[in-house]
Design goal:
Oligomer: single chain
Helix content: over 70%
Radius of gyration: 20 Å
Largest sheet: none
Length: 92
């Protein structure tokens, strides 16, 4: 199982390197989105299969970690945006 994961991970890295050249496919966000969607489908599929053999805990969602991540993300992207815009603003 671990060897399969290792092989798929390395193959995906080489596939991304091959396809992410601007001459081949200039839409890297599309490739990332498709890979995340396929990963989500695989996770849901294998979880359903795994429930037949192993008693898995029920998935739950809590807003507290999501709120912390949202605040952290907005503060980091906001500070990056401010530093980038201050670099390009004309000095007086």
């Amino acid at each position: 199982m671990i060897a399969t994961y290792f092989f798929i991970s390395i193959a995906l890295i080489f596939f991304n390197k091959l396809i992410m050249t601007p001459q081949t496919f200039p839409f890297p966000l599309t490739v990332s989105w498709v890979q995340f969607a396929v990963a989500l489908v695989c996770i849901i599929f294998f979880r359903k299969i795994g429930e037949e053999y192993v008693a898995l805990p029920r998935l739950t969602h809590s807003r507290a970690p999501a709120n912390c991540a949202r605040v952290l993300t907005s503060s980091l992207t906001g500070s990056r945006h401010r530093s980038r815009s201050s670099r390009h603003s004309p000095s007086t």
